[in-house]
């Protein structure tokens, strides 16, 4: 296959992990005879500094022309403590989601046996937990009508039937390929938007008789995720609930720095780590590149190149087993590997495989 990849490295540790993602992508393409070209584009605080816009038109065009976007992270503390800032790096992320029509955000919650001791949950609760959250990404409160004056403010949680239908079909697609169990998470006892979700889901459920569908209020789902994470196979939910539940999901596995994600929809799909830009670590060569590298695995799998994806997963597991790890997950007394060293080890593994 021929790949034209837009590389959006962004801020903080973004450029360092991006470099490793690209190196792994290149190694896999060489091995399997795929052609790949990359085009870098700016976003986030970096783009605000350079052109005053966190998702400039030129970056948008580069994304539109690409087959896939390899995204790293955006965010800079200089904006966090300034509520009056007119533009923020995160707006670049939201603009990218909206403009590329990335309505389906797929966030796997996977455990790695060797990192289970990092989980805040008991070993037996979390070991083997494996589910994915499909988060609706271009609707709801994030994009609904907003208002703010000095005494009053609101955000509107608006959804249309069409928006709910299309995300449900994506979720059922995943459920069919997995353990055939879908949990629709909402707050239908209180919110009108959730009642629409549930009504539409109950209709669409009929088209997927091979999948077991259940419905759960979001507060209950948040609880169930820590009491019994094995319950879940595929979970689907609206934008804000998905934001909250996926942070919970990533931390219960103990492997937040390892979790990738995919956002797909109307135009070019985007593959990115779940973690943020970790500005304090910028330039120190200590950031874990594995979530970015696993995002490359998701990229191949999206194009139905399963063997390529599998080889990357195998290389990542081998690096963990060999204790070739960045400091935050290294075993006591183990050698400290940097971002580049971990990336290089994985590239070498792929070449030799
Ligand atoms: C995420 C992040 C973003 C979100 C922020 C950075 C705007 O938390 O991708 O989960 O809220 O969607
Ligand atoms: Mg979030």
Structure description:
- By secondary structure, the chain is of the alpha/beta class.
- It contains 13 helices and 12 strands.
- It has helices spanning 14-32, 44-51, 57-65, 77-80, 89-99, 123-126, 161-177, 192-204, 218-227, 239-252, 290-302, 306-321, 339-352, and strands at 2-10, 35-40, 68-73, 104-110, 130-136, 146-148, 153-155, 181-186, 212-217, 234-237, 260-264, 270-273.
- The strands form 2 sheets. The chain has a 10-stranded mixed beta sheet, with helices on both faces.
- It binds 3-isopropylmalic acid (IPM) and magnesium ion.
- Residues 90, 93, 243 line the site of 3-isopropylmalic acid.
Can you give keywords for this protein?
353 residues; alpha/beta; ten-stranded mixed beta sheet; two-stranded antiparallel sheet; 12 strands; globular; binds 3-isopropylmalic acid; binds magnesium ion
Main sheet overview = 10 strands, mixed
What small molecules does the structure contain?
3-isopropylmalic acid, magnesium ion
What's the helix count?
A: 13
Q: Average pLDDT value? A: 95
Percent helix, as a range, is 40-55%
CA radius of gyration: 20 Å
Regions with pLDDT < 50 over 5+ consecutive residues?
none
Distance between the termini: 20 Å
How much of the sequence lies in strands comes to 15-25%
Q: Say how many strands there are.
A: 12
Question: What is this structure's SSE topology?
Answer:
Blueprint: E1 2-10, H1 14-32, E2 35-40, H2 44-51, H3 57-65, E3 68-73, H4 77-80, H5 89-99, E4 104-110, H6 123-126, E5 130-136, E6 146-148, E7 153-155, H7 161-177, E8 181-186, H8 192-204, E9 212-217, H9 218-227, E10 234-237, H10 239-252, E11 260-264, E12 270-273, H11 290-302, H12 306-321, H13 339-352
Helix pairs in contact: 1-11, 1-13, 2-5, 7-8, 9-10, 11-12, 12-13
Bound molecules: 3-isopropylmalic acid and magnesium ion.
């Amino acid at each position: 296959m021929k790949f034209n990849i837009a590389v959006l490295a962004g801020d903080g540790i973004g450029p360092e992990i991006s470099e490793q993602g690209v190196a792994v992508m290149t190694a896999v393409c060489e091995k399997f005879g795929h052609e790949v070209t990359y085009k870098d584009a700016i976003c986030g605080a970096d783009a605000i500094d350079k052109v005053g816009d966190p998702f400039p038109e030129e970056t948008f065009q580069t994304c539109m022309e690409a087959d896939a976007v390899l995204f790293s992270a955006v965010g800079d503390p200089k904006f966090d403590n300034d509520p009056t800032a007119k533009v923020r790096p995160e707006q670049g992320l939201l603009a990218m989601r909206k403009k590329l029509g990335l309505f389906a955000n797929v966030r796997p919650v996977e455990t790695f046996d060797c990192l289970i001791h990092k989980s805040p949950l008991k070993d037996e609760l979390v070991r083997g937990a494996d589910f994915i959250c499909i988060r609706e990404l271009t609707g709801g409160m994030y994009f609904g009508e907003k208002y703010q004056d000095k005494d009053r403010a609101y955000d509107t949680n608006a959804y249309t039937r069409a928006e709910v239908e299309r995300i449900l079909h994506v979720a059922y697609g995943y459920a069919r390929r997995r353990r055939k169990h879908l949990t629709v998470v909402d707050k239908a006892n209180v919110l009108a938007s959730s009642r629409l979700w549930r009504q539409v889901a109950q209709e669409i459920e009929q088209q997927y008789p091979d999948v077991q569908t259940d419905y759960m209020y979001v507060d209950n789902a948040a609880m169930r995720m820590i009491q019994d994470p094995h319950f879940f196979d595929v979970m689907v939910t609206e934008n804000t609930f998905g934001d909250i539940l996926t942070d919970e999901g990533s931390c219960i596995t103990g492997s937040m720095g390892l979790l990738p994600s995919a956002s797909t929809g109307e135009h070019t799909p985007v593959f990115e780590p779940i973690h943020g830009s970790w500005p304090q670590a910028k330039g120190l060569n200590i950031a874990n590149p594995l979530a970015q590298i696993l995002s490359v695995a998701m990229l191949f799998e999206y194009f139905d190149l399963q063997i390529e994806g599998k080889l990357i997963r195998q290389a990542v597991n081998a690096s963990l087993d060999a204790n070739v790890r960045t400091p935050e997950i290294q075993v006591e007394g183990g050698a400290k590997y940097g971002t580049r060293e971990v990336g290089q080890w994985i590239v070498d593994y792929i070449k030799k495989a």
